[in-house]
Amino acid sequence: MAFDQLSVVLAGLAILIAAGYTAHSRMGFTDVPSSLPMVGKHHGFLADLRTRLASMGSLLPVIEAGYEKYSKDGLSFVIPGFDRAMILVPSSQIKWVVDQADSVLNAAAMQIEVLQSDWTLLDSSMARNPVHEIIIRRDLTRSLGALIPGIEEELNVAIDEYWGKNTENWIDVGVFTTMMKVIARTSNRIFVGLPLCRNDEYLDNAGAFSTDIAISGALINLIPEILKPLLAWICLLPNRWHLYKCSKYLHPFINQRIQDLNNARAAGETTERWNDFTTWYLEEVADHSDPSLRSPEKIMKRLMTVNFAAIHTSTFTATNMLFDLFSSPNAAENVQEIREEILQVLSEHDGKWDKNALGKLIKTDSAIRESLRISTFMSHGMTRLVVDPKGLTMPDGLHLPPGTRIGTSTHSIHHDGDIYENPMVYDPFRFSRAREVAETAKSQAVGIEIPNGKDQKDYMKILESKNLAIVTTSDTFLAFGHGRHACPGRFFAAAEMKLLLAYIILNYDIKPIGFRPANGTIGAAILPPMKASISVKRRKN
Ligand code: HEM
């Protein structure tokens, strides 16, 4: 039996166990204060069970209804989940969420619960000691300038391979499937480098492991705590299988890298030539008192963990970006405007991309950020768990016991007409226009006294709009979260998306797409169209 089929059988089994368990012993949501309103509640026969089951279908309409009814008035509301409920705070309280210490409101603890990562990552230390976050935040961001030529090369080689070089005929390409391959290769260029980043069997299995985490996490969440040690292992068979398949390549690669680094150090040479996650990790744990951190087993799982963080998030983003841009009203003109910007910037930089050149792609940046706004893949985000044993008191005085889940209505905030004009329209230059106004205001203001009172407020608002690049998070732009735990990979992801779009726009024509293929929803996730294709033809440059 294939592992896909096995997953379905396991899903059915787990749902049955959990449904019976829930129906008999866990009526009512007791994990959130009863004084808060709950949306999406069913009434009548087996109301509690039906509420929980419905939350697995799609939470988006429920969240949208709650946002309109409560968040717009600055109030929190509760959404159901299959296992637990969650409080969604209004955007006016995001700053309060961000200001809480990790010892009070914790992002990792929430992931451990939601993804069941003690089980699904096959090693509880992956999420409980998230050393990869430090490395991504520090080493990846610091090395980005040096990595740009490699990222660019990998993207270009991969797109050429998956989209072809036919300048005569239009060919249909599956957007999601090809983007998944392109992104997996490019991410692994900075995780393990060449040649492993081009090994299809490794990449397919690393991608499958990422999917396994989501599926097995959802399944294990359905199993009552007491039964997990007995049943979780069945749900983890696909994870173990895909890790085993990856280990055929990762084991020799890691052993070789450890040896190369040791040899280089012994010879007094620098290790700069291996500028990738594996090396940064090995350097990070080189002097650690726990030698197991340096074992190939742990390093392999750490690589699987970063693949999970990077691959689907970036693939969803790339897929949405292409569909949003190429199906937008005036797509041809918009694409031409971006193409001109790209050519202009390249001509100022000797035809080569570097950090400064990418920074000048204001319109390209805006088109990507706008797609992240309108097509965010999270109906809710910034999810945190109250971990302080004393609990936490909300700004309105409501006390939350430890274990309470909190989040924000990411999708609804991104589509709020009071925050974004024409929020349902993909407007590629929404952010670049605001940045241009701010730049002009700033340059004209040199030597001018800054006004007082309301004028000063407006003026500061204009200047703030200068900071509307993809990587800038705020309480109204939450695609990467916000605050201390905002996505540390976003600087890399932004560079990757710009290089990807630039290469596509310079090298391919894409037939206008009459309508935007719809995204799908499952639970809290909003998935890009996975089967839709586009027609592409290589440009004769
Ligand atoms: C466009 C692509 C991406 C999107 C939209 C995205 C989005 C996010 C979001 C929404 C979060 C949660 C933030 C929060 O809870 O406040 C997050 C966290 C994280 N992301 Fe990304 N991500 C992307 C790419 C990447 C990449 C490429 C990497 C790695 C190279 C990465 C590594 C991480 C890590 C390690 C965290 C956990 C951070 C923490 O809890 O402190 N992400 N990402």
UniProtKB/TrEMBL annotation:
<dbReference type="GO" id="GO:0004497">
    <property type="term" value="F:monooxygenase activity"/>
</dbReference>
<dbReference type="GO" id="GO:0016705">
    <property type="term" value="F:oxidoreductase activity, acting on paired donors, with incorporation or reduction of molecular oxygen"/>
</dbReference>
<keyword id="KW-0479">Metal-binding</keyword>
<feature type="binding site" description="axial binding residue">
    <location>
        <position position="487"/>
    </location>
    <ligand>
        <name>heme</name>
    </ligand>
</feature>
<dbReference type="Pfam" id="PF00067">
    <property type="entry name" value="p450"/>
</dbReference>
<keyword id="KW-0560">Oxidoreductase</keyword>
<keyword id="KW-0408">Iron</keyword>
<keyword id="KW-0503">Monooxygenase</keyword>
<dbReference type="GO" id="GO:0005506">
    <property type="term" value="F:iron ion binding"/>
</dbReference>
<dbReference type="GO" id="GO:0020037">
    <property type="term" value="F:heme binding"/>
</dbReference>
<keyword id="KW-0349">Heme</keyword>
<protein>
    <submittedName>
        <fullName>Related to cytochrome P450</fullName>
    </submittedName>
</protein>
<dbReference type="InterPro" id="IPR017972">
    <property type="entry name" value="Cyt_P450_CS"/>
</dbReference>
<comment type="similarity">
    <text>Belongs to the cytochrome P450 family.</text>
</comment>
<dbReference type="InterPro" id="IPR036396">
    <property type="entry name" value="Cyt_P450_sf"/>
</dbReference>
<dbReference type="InterPro" id="IPR002403">
    <property type="entry name" value="Cyt_P450_E_grp-IV"/>
</dbReference>
<dbReference type="InterPro" id="IPR001128">
    <property type="entry name" value="Cyt_P450"/>
</dbReference>
